[in-house]
Amino acid sequence: MKYASVVLGLLWLVTGCFSGHVIEIKMPLSAVDARATQEKIVLDSLREVAQELGMHVDDPIRLQNGYVQYVAKYGTGAVSGFAIVVAFSDHVSIAFRSLEDVPETTAERAFALFKQKLDRRGMTYTVRRV
User: What are the tens digits of pLDDT across the range 44-103?
Assistant: First the structure.
């Protein structure tokens, strides 16, 4: 099951080959001394949003390209319908992705909750809608 989440998460995050609604938040990672704090804020926000939406956060997945990825999804099986994918490399990428059969409001609600938590903690980021 973990492998299926990795593959789908990577496809959704890196290639964007799934059609549907996508919102992405990107932020540069701070200097080394502040990086751990920044990562903790992002992961705490992910866990809080996932809990509010009744989602499960998988254990971190370390990839060969240096990415560390977290996936929040409904249930504990493979990703289906909607997921929040957080990846750390030289920047932080947070993608809210849903397939066409999932209402756009699902991604919008998750995005709004996550954005609210980042804003409350004074994080700087950019938003891209696809």
Answer: 999 999 999 888 898 899 888 878 899 888 876 666 678 888 988 888 899 988 866 666
Tell me the C-alpha distance between 119 and 40, whole Å. Answer: 15
Nearest to 53 by CA among 126, 111, 115: 111
Burial class (CB in 10 A: 0-12, 13-18, 19+), 99: middle
DSSP string for 6-62: HHHHHIIIII--S-SEEEEEEEE---HHHHHHHHHHHHHHHHHHHHHHT-EEPPPEE
